[in-house]
Amino acid sequence: MTTREEILRGVRGYGEAKCAAEESKGFVPGESFISTGGKVVDAQDLVNMVDSVLDGWFTSGRYHDEFEQKLAAWVGVQHCAFVNSGSSANLNALAALTSPKLGKRQLLPGDEVITPVAGFPTTINPILQLGLKPVFVDVELGTYDAVDEQIVSLVEQSHSEGGDKKIKAIMMAHTLGNPFNVTLMRELCDKYGLWLVEDACDALGTTIDGKRVGTFGDLATASFYPAHHITTGEGGAVFCNNGLLAKEVKSFRDWGRACWCDTGHDNACGKRFDWQLGKLPKGYDHKYTYDNIGYNLKATDIQAALGVSQLDKIDNTVSTRHKNGDKLYTAICTAFGVDAQALENGEHLTAGPFVMPVVAKNVNLSWFGFPLTLDPSRPELDREDLIQFLNSRKIGTRLVFASNILRQPAYVGLVEAGRARTFGGGNGVDGDFPNADVVTNRSFWLGTHPNLSDEMITFMADSLKEWVNGQ
Ligand SMILES: Cc1ncc(COP(=O)(O)O)c(C=O)c1O
Question: Considering the domain 53-264+292-311 in this protein, what is its CATH number?
Answer without folding.
Answer: 3.40.640.10
